[in-house]
Amino acid sequence: MLQTSWDVRFEAVEPVREFTWHKYGRGFAGWYYSVTTQEHVGYESWLERDRLVLLDRDPQVTAVASQPFWLHWREGEEKHRHAPDYFVRLADGRARVVDVRAEDDMDERTRESFAVTERACQTVGWEFVWAGRPDPVFMANVRWLARYRRTRCGRPEAVVDELVEVFREPKGLWEGAGLVGDRLRVLPVLFHLLWSGALGTDLVGGLMQTGSLVWTEVRG
């Protein structure tokens, strides 16, 4: 029962089962390198991988573990169990359990498992989130930025400072990069700043292009 293990650091545990995939199935297992945890985190589908990317970009997330525990329950004489997809620790100390499944891939058994998991999380004060399919344009843009998520892409610091200054007045991505210097050197830093949120752009209205408007985010 979660009541007896609410204080376990589930964000640091190993997966309770192996990640599996079948040659002709819809799943695809793999490992995603998280800059938040500085470790690889497992996934079993592209949808789960996308959710990891979003969690990795969320500044409120400090740790993520996949398949963190088994949840067991009974219905009459029938035994059931479910391993949620992710356990997430937030910056304020709160815990979040995330299950990932597209709406059109939900069946009655899955809905029941998620409902039981949500009730169990409530008993220990955890948040439960069912994460569906993200907006495709937004996700395509974030996937691109994720290529530049590593801290090495945010160097040198002088280029970072120049980009932040140049985009205090919003302007096109390509134009602003050219004002700072050689675009081959500047663009990786620019994309890293868009990933981290130091710079902003519209990630929903369309795929990023050379003319996409970029601006410096005001930090409180």
Descriptive key words:
220 residues, alpha+beta, Trna Endonuclease, Chain: A, domain 1, 2 domains, four-stranded mixed beta sheet, 6 helices
Kindly provide the name of the CATH class of the largest domain: Alpha Beta
Q: Strand order of the main beta sheet, please?
A: 3-6-7-8
SSE pattern: EEHEEEEEHEHHEHHEE
Q: What is the general shape? A: elongated
The number of domains is 2
- What Rg do the Cα atoms give? 20 Å
Distance between the termini: 41 Å
The stretches of 5 or more residues where confidence is low (pLDDT under 50) are: none
What is the correct CATH architecture of the largest domain?
3-Layer(aba) Sandwich
Structural class, from secondary structure content?
Answer: alpha+beta
Describe this structure in words.
- By secondary structure, this protein is α+β, with helices and mostly antiparallel strands.
- 32% of the residues lie in helices and 23% in strands.
- The strands form four sheets. Strands 3-6-7-8 form a four-stranded mixed beta sheet, sandwiched between helices. A three-stranded antiparallel beta sheet has the order 9-11-10.
- It is elongated and about 70 Å long.
- The termini are far apart.
- 28% of the residues are buried.
- The mean pLDDT is 92.
How would the blueprint of this fold be written?
Elements: E1 30-34, E2 39-43, H1 46-57, E3 61-66, E4 71-75, E5 78-82, E6 86-90, E7 95-100, H2 108-123, E8 127-131, H3 136-146, H4 157-166, E9 171-172, H5 173-180, H6 183-196, E10 199-201, E11 213-216
Parallel strand pairs: 7-8
Antiparallel strand pairs: 1-2, 3-6, 4-5, 6-7, 9-11, 10-11
Helix pairs in contact: 1-3, 4-5, 5-6
